[in-house]
Write a structure and sequence with these properties.
heterodimer; A: mainly beta; six-stranded mixed sheet; four-stranded antiparallel sheet; B: mainly beta; seven-stranded mixed sheet; 11 strands
């Protein structure tokens, strides 16, 4: 079946540190992959996405590359800010499917 | 104003009570979804609807029902609430397609005592 596994948190980093949040997936075919972010007290919002192998999604300094060979879509940012503190969700949608499958979420806290 | 609005934002109720969570959207999307979020479990799909006449069960529909009153409105009901339905509930909309982005409301926190 379809599933997403992401690294457990919480993750605490100092401002300007490098961030990696790992995400691997299981799916047949060629799913589309997403990172959503949930800021405190808000709903989820799309951070970035990639729709085919080797695509790189990027937004707000965050990047993730769709790696078919390792079935991964790790989220990275070179220099985090306090305002990046949030919960990050990796998700996939199988081609032709109606639903997004979400990972369990990783809470990031950035301290000054 | 938010594009996807959920009411109520917070509700505390007792076991056995009927509860309705409402969602309305101004994005003009045909597709609407209800998810619940539990710590350590991420988001799980309860029901989804692709138009007014289309209702589909998600992963965890038992104990829930929905109504799509109009393109812009999609409500979730708990006919007889139980404590393990305590969770954060999100409504979302989408324009569709395999890469279609989901737009979420701010969530409705439900506590069942």
């Amino acid at each position: 079946g379809n599933s997403v596994t992401q690294m457990e948190g919480p993750v605490t980093l100092s401002e300007e540190a490098f961030l990696t949040i790992n995400c691997t997936y299981t799916a047949t075919g060629y799913p589309s992959l997403f990172w959503y972010v949930q800021y405190p007290g808000e709903g989820l919002q799309l951070l970035l996405k990639a729709t085919k192998a080797d695509d790189k999604g990027s937004n707000k300094g965050f990047e993730a590359t769709y790696r078919k060979e390792t079935t991964s879509f790790h989220l990275e940012k070179g220099s985090v800010q306090v305002s990046d503190s949030a919960v990050y969700f990796c998700a996939l949608r199988k081609a032709g499917a109606n639903n997004l499958f979400f990972g369990t979420g990783t809470r990031l806290t950035v301290i000054p | 104003d938010a594009d996807v609005t959920q009411t109520p934002r917070n509700r505390i109720t007792k076991t056995g009570k009927r509860i309705m969570l409402e969602c309305s959207q101004t994005k003009g999307h045909d597709r609407m979804y209800w998810y619940r979020q539990d710590p350590g479990l991420g988001l799980r799909l309860i029901y989804y609807s692709f138009d007014v006449k289309d209702i589909n069960k998600g992963e965890i529909s038992d104990g829930y029902s929905v109504s799509r009153q109009a393109q812009a409105k999609f409500s979730l009901s708990l006919e007889s609430a139980i404590p393990n339905q305590t969770a954060l509930y999100f409504c979302a909309t989408s324009s569709g397609g395999s890469t279609g982005e989901l737009f979420f409301g701010e969530g409705s926190r439900l506590t069942v005592l």
